[in-house]
Write a structure and sequence with these properties.
Elements (H helix, E strand, L loop, with lengths): L7 E4 L15 E6 L4 E6 L11 H10 L8 E3 L23 E3 H9 L4 H12 L2 H14 L22 H12 L2 H7 L3 E3 L6 E3 L1 H8 L7 E9 L3 E10 L2 E10 L7 H16 L2 E4 L1
Antiparallel strand pairs: 1-11, 2-3, 2-10, 4-5, 6-7, 8-9, 9-10
Length: 279
């Protein structure tokens, strides 16, 4: 007689929607990417300001509309209009500087440069308004119900919003693009002419605040007065891959609350749940 042994690999629990982890962020969502399952959520569909998490969409739309990422372009005064007045973060590019699209994309995502965002918009679509149309077209393609873009940078403005769940869907979609994944998991990048070196805002924060979060693979930060502290990251531990979005954490304090929130969420699941062989 033949005997069969069936081994099931399970991560338990599948979801914990009612779990109260006492985080400061007003909105959050976490996925177990191995199973594409939501395992934690907090006000996931509330429409809120999302600051520079906007640039996740800015980046993936660019990658899908650029023929050659190493093509060179020249920066103009239009790429810097309004940025100083808005106190926007910039990558450090200069007027009349010749750069590649690759330089701009790393400048967009690592130091969160609004100068890079505006140059990308001008060179790909002719300007911010036209580029935002491409972003909102992608919103419809992805079937997002709680997202509308007005700019490429994430600066606070009426009508510019998303939700934690919609941001997670944009993030997961973008991660299918290998160049996007390479960019957001890079800690340091030097531009093609060697004039600038960008460091990831996430890597910098981990170092500056001595945060032991070596499971983080990369992601995107965002901060404005209305959006508070926002953070979208991917992580991996014990062969389990995670994606976590937290929005509207309060500013101030010795350590940014967006990181303390994410550390609390990640480590709760990493320390309490794992895959088990059930025979």
């Amino acid at each position: 007689m033949k005997k069969f042994i069936i081994v099931l690999l399970l991560l338990i629990p599948i979801n914990v929607f009612g779990l109260d982890l006492d985080i400061t962020s007003s909105n959050a969502i976490m996925y177990n990417l191995n199973d594409n399952e939501i395992i934690y959520e907090k006000n996931k569909n509330e429409e809120v300001s999302i600051a520079s998490l906007t640039k996740i969409m800015t980046c993936i739309v660019a990658l899908e509309n650029i023929n050659n990422i190493d093509d060179k372009i020249t920066l103009t005064y239009k790429d810097f209009e309004g940025l100083a007045e808005a106190n926007a973060a910039v990558a450090g590019f200069k007027v009349k500087e010749e750069v590649t699209y690759r330089d701009l994309l790393y400048g967009l995502m690592l130091p969160s440069g609004a100068d890079a965002a505006q140059s990308i918009a001008r060179n790909i679509a002719g300007g911010n308004e036209e580029y935002v149309e491409l972003m909102n077209k992608k919103v419809k393609e992805l079937g997002l119900k709680h997202t509308h873009f007005v700019n490429t940078t994430g600066l606070d403005i009426d009508g510019h919003y998303s939700s934690a769940e919609d941001i997670s869907k944009i993030f997961m979609y973008a991660l299918k693009n290998e160049t996007f994944k390479e960019i957001i998991t890079t800690s340091k990048y030097t531009t093609s002419d060697g004039s600038l070196t960008f460091r990831s805002t996430i890597s910098r924060a981990l170092n500056n605040y001595n945060l032991d979060m070596d499971y983080l693979l990369g992601g995107k930060t965002g901060t404005t007065g209305e959006a508070g502290l926002c953070l979208a990251t991917i992580a991996e531990k014990d062969n389990v891959k995670y994606l976590l979005v937290t929005v509207k954490a309060p500013t101030g304090g010795n350590v940014p609350s967006s990181y303390t929130d994410q550390k609390k969420i990640y480590e709760y699941f990493m320390n309490n749940y794992s895959y088990k062989n059930i025979v």
